[in-house]
Write a structure and sequence with these properties.
The structure holds two protein chains of two kinds. Chain A is mostly beta strands. Helices cover 0% and strands 50% of the residues of chain A. In chain A, 37% of the residues are buried. Classes of the chains: A mainly beta, B mainly beta. At the A-B interface, strand 4, strand 5 and strand 9 of A face strand 6, strand 10 and strand 11 of B.
């Protein structure tokens, strides 16, 4: 089954404790991205990657890191989480190329709470 | 930069009735794509419908259709014969057509919470 998986689905942590949210897709997609969803703000892009070893900042990158060492994986790293990073996080992937209307496939979301 | 505005934070509709969700956007681009995503209580993001800006014909997908007005930069979603399973948050999204690095960014509106009442 074609899918984007994220782990963990739920996480409660404390300020300053480094954490990683994993994202993996099995569709051989070139493009992957991370979004955060906050009430009243919709989804905002954190980082995206156009291919292996190619990443760039989205609209709200502060406090986050990413890496793309393999095509299928795109982990989101919070080196020193803070309470304002409490949010619902989505990973997404899509086929690359010049066709921007290619559908983005979203993962199930990760609910992160930073105390 | 592009912006997407959904002016209706919440809406409700009776089952089997028709409802229209509004979306406006601001861009200087001529070629772009517009999307409506549905997010049910499960939180999964589901693509409902998409529209290429260069196509004059409005997209339709079963009970879902759009009214795309390019000059007015408006992209509303009409849901016909509303069903209880349509209860969800709906997001309008914009993506510009480009082969450059920025071509992959989806810009979302803040969402409209739709409740279908039995």
């Amino acid at each position: 089954e074609a899918q984007v998986t994220q782990n963990p689905r739920y996480l409660i942590t404390v300020t300053g404790k480094k954490l990683t949210v994993t994202c993996s897709q099995n569709m051989n997609h070139e493009y992957m991205s991370w979004y955060r969803q906050d009430p009243g703000l919709g989804l905002r892009q954190i980082y995206y990657s156009m291919n292996v070893e190619v990443t760039d900042k989205g609209d709200v990158p502060e406090g986050y890191k990413v890496s793309r060492k393999e095509k299928r994986n795109f982990p989101l790293i919070l080196e020193s989480p803070s309470p304002n990073q409490t949010s619902l996080y989505f990973c997404a992937s899509r086929r690359g190329g010049t066709y921007s209307y290619n559908e983005q496939f979203f993962g199930p979301g990760t609910r992160l709470t930073v105390l | 930069a592009q912006t997407v505005t959904q002016s209706q934070p919440e809406m409700s509709v009776q089952e089997a009735e028709t409802v229209t969700l509004s979306c406006t956007y601001d861009t200087s681009e001529n070629n772009y794509y517009l999307f409506w995503y549905k997010q049910p209580p499960s939180r999964q993001m589901i693509l409902v419908i998409r529209q290429e800006a260069y196509k004059q014909q409005n997209a339709t997908e079963n009970r879902f259709s759009v009214n795309f007005q390019k000059a007015a930069k408006s992209f509303s979603l009409k849901i016909s014969d509303s069903q209880l399973g349509d209860t969800a948050m709906y997001f309008c999204a914009f993506m510009k057509h480009s082969t450059g690095a920025g071509s992959y960014q989806l810009t979302f509106g803040k969402g409209t919470k739709l409740s279908v009442i039995p």
